[in-house]
Amino acid sequence: MDALLNHLFPDTAAVENGELELGGVPASELARRFGTPLVVYDEQTLRAQAQAYRAAAPGALIAYGTKAFPSVAVLRLLAEEGLGADVSTAGELEFALRAGLPGERLVIHGNNKEEELLRRAADADALIVLDSLDELERAKASGGARFLIRVTPGIEADTHEAVKTAHHGSKFGLPPEDAVEAIRRLPECEGLHVHVGSQLMHFGAALMTVDWVAQFAARLRAELDWTPGTIDLGGGLGVRHVIEEPSFTVAEFVGGLVGELQRAFQLQALPSTALVLEPGRSLVSRAGVTLYTVGAVKRASAATTYVTVDGGMSDNPRPAMYNARYTALLANRVDEPAAEAYAIAGKHCESGDVLIERVELPAPRRGDVLAVPVTGAYTLAMSSTYNAVPRPPAVLVSNGEARLIRRRETVDDLLALELYQSL
């Protein structure tokens, strides 16, 4: 239990009188006050992760990958720690602007940027990452002045197929020959962008990418007399969701990238550059815990007993989409010994709506509060209203206080989009 709390739950997680506390607030109190499902974010963990990135890459622009969890409150908190934001749609850009982020700390992505995004990015004087030759002319016409060229090095990351981004045939970035042409047409661009993939649990592909971009920069110097002033290495640091998975600290991963970038550029006799990093899940995942209320407990076979909860694939689609693994504990009965292994099933009309295949718990009872850690990224961000189930709220906890930062949707919110009254 100590390993679970120390490595998967937020920094402030503690057990008091047999109950889980987050940010000094008992889980049962959070469930009672805000209802469940509920995503709880720990402010101390968010700030600590941001500070770890700043310490590991002094002087770099750390641009939070907003897609992990678009939240004005979280963006403001990270901005207080000196971070910027990486956005890929007009909607995400609006979140960042409403959080008060200045243009010099905004990085604009997207493989099919809409005109509104390009125009507003140019108005904000944000750094626009060009993703195609066609986009180059469109971005210049929008009035943009700050650009990077995203290049695809053809490196296969050891991660899920859906989150690889630097392999041959990727929908992101330009193949090397097209990237050379882009810089020929736009020699005033500031630098290069590469991103090998997400949820990286090994160093190999990331270090190969750093070496590749140094060699590519040397080619550009030889062919075009052009050297990058900025290198954006993207994000990608993975997080573990169960104890058995490997993990790296921010200091280990980022320190390795920074050291390899310096070594590789020196080897090619290239000048040092400004650095941009775009962490997403590694900033917010472990800060988030989802609380559910236990419903029916049903033995389906000799080997499987289901514990059903009041959420599921609508608030966390990752198990269904990526075969992601999670663990859990009974937040109101943490100290009790495990009775057996259970499967945690959601409430949706899908056989695949199983959040956790196997987790040892005390014998669950209706009304218990189940806590699933490491759910701060790509849960609410990818949530849906499947089965007309409204999305859950989010709260920020700190020093014994809980603040609502996203309200719960209601069925009336869903029906507000319907036009049945006019038929």
If you had to describe this structure to a student in words, what would you say it looks like?
The protein is of the alpha/beta class. Mean pLDDT is 92; it is low at 157-167. The radius of gyration is 23 Å and the shape is globular. The chain contains 13 helices and 20 strands. It is 30% helix and 22% strand. The strands form three sheets. Strands 4, 13, 14, 15, 16, 17, 18, 19 and 20 form a nine-stranded mixed beta sheet that branches. α7 links the parallel β8 (127-130) and β9 (147-150). The chain starts with a helix and ends in an 8-residue tail after the last helix. The longest helix has 21 residues, at 204-224. It folds into two domains: 2-35 and 287-415, Beta Barrel (Lyase, Ornithine Decarboxylase, Chain A, domain 1), CATH 2.40.37; 43-282, Alpha-Beta Barrel (TIM Barrel).
Strand content: 15-25%
**If classified by CATH, what would the architecture of the largest domain be?**
Alpha-Beta Barrel
Structural class per helix/strand content?
alpha/beta
User: Spans of 5+ residues with little confidence (pLDDT < 50)?
Assistant: 157-167
CATH superfamily of the largest domain: Alanine racemase
Helix content: 25-40%
Largest sheet report: 9 strands, mixed
SSE topology sketch:
Elements: H1 2-7, E1 14-16, E2 19-22, E3 25-26, H2 27-34, E4 38-42, H3 43-56, E5 61-65, H4 72-80, E6 84-87, H5 90-98, E7 106-108, H6 115-123, E8 127-130, H7 133-141, E9 147-150, H8 176-185, E10 191-193, H9 204-224, E11 230-232, H10 250-267, E12 274-277, H11 281-284, E13 288-299, E14 305-309, H12 318-322, E15 329-330, E16 340-345, E17 354-361, E18 369-373, E19 394-398, E20 401-406, H13 411-415
Parallel strand pairs: 4-19, 5-6, 5-12, 6-7, 7-8, 8-9, 9-10, 10-11, 11-12, 14-16
Antiparallel strand pairs: 1-2, 2-3, 4-13, 13-14, 13-18, 15-18, 16-17, 19-20
Helix pairs in contact: 3-10, 9-10
